[in-house]
Design a protein that fits this description.
single chain, alpha/beta, Rossmann fold, 2 domains, six-stranded mixed beta sheet, three-stranded antiparallel beta sheet, globular, binds adenosine-5'-triphosphate, binds magnesium ion
């Protein structure tokens, strides 16, 4: 199956615990070149935990993660990571330019100076997210949306073939949201694989190739029309769902039957 597609990420039976308590149980799924996967699930479902496990920031209790058949915990593989807003330490005295240049470390090497090519990559990334004017601004003096865009620029400058974005739309206005979505189209053209955590089920349904539905484990993974069906959503979100339908005009797809995943 899928032998004609280029496998980028393989997550196999991954369990992650915090102090002995399981946050993500036995997760298995794969992602392919140029694919855009929405990672959805309620608060505490394990989205951030999954991303940190893939990047190698959290140890695995069991299972394996492979990126281009390498183990990110042991080998150097380039994975772009846009952390969830709450995870960013704003007291750290760095400017926008510093943060974006950090994306180039894998290209520069730790004790070398940035080359013209590195500086150009940073300039281009800042232009792509519309932050050129704020290049020397300390991170702690930015708005929430500008911080998100700074980390997206860092990921772009990194030129990584796999990009994990943890709720990049949280706290950004409609214009920035559309700009980020356009960037995602650009990344797809370049064959970059994107996993993006979001609470926006409508966006997941309309703008993504596949949806990974989490709730402490993988509930379903497949095309949006299969995964975001009422039965699976009811199982994961329970009573919240009615509220969401009213508040967000949530599109419920399909006829109530789940044909894939779970
Ligand atoms: N540093 C930590 N120490 C202990 N438990 C943690 C830690 N980080 C997360 N958890 C727990 O692990 C589970 C998964 O959390 P995670 O942050 O991955 O969820 P999430 O899906 O990203 O949620 P959200 O939508 O709120 O961002 C939760 O029960 C959470 O309380
Ligand atoms: Mg999270």
């Amino acid at each position: 199956m899928d032998s004609d597609r280029c496998l980028v990420l393989r997550v196999e039976s991954v369990t992650v615990t915090y102090n002995g308590r399981v946050a993500l149980r036995d997760a298995t799924f794969s992602a392919y070149a140029g694919e855009r996967v929405a990672v959805v699930g309620p608060n505490g479902a394990g989205k951030t935990t999954l991303f940190k496990a893939i990047v190698g920031l959290l140890p695995l209790e069991s299972g394996t993660v492979e990126v281009f058949r390498c183990n990110p915990q042991r080998e150097r593989v380039s994975i772009g990571y846009v952390p969830q807003r709450e995870e960013v330490d704003l007291s750290f005295p760095v400017t926008v330019a510093d943060v974006v240049m950090m994306g180039r470390i894998g290209h520069i090497g730790y004790l070398r100076r940035p080359s013209r090519r590195d500086r150009e990559a940073v300039r281009q990334a800042l232009e792509q997210v519309g932050l050129t004017d704020l290049v020397n601004r300390p991170l702690g003096e930015l708005s929430g949306g500008q911080i998100q865009r700074t980390f997206i620029a860092r990921a772009l400058a990194q030129e990584a073939p796999l990009l994990l974005m943890d709720e990049p739309f949280a706290g950004v206005d409609a214009t920035s949201e559309e700009a980020i979505l356009r960037l995602l189209d650009l990344l797809r053209e370049n064959g970059v694989t994107v996993l993006l955590a979001t609470h926006d089920l409508r966006m997941a349904a309309e703008r993504f190739d596949r949806v990974l539905l989490l709730n402490g484990e993988v509930v379903a993974c497949g095309p949006p029309g299969e995964v975001l069906c009422p039965a699976a959503l009811q199982r994961v979100y329970g009573g919240q769902l009615t509220l969401w339908e009213h508040e967000r005009g949530l599109l419920l797809l399909g006829d109530g039957h789940c044909s894939g995943g779970a």
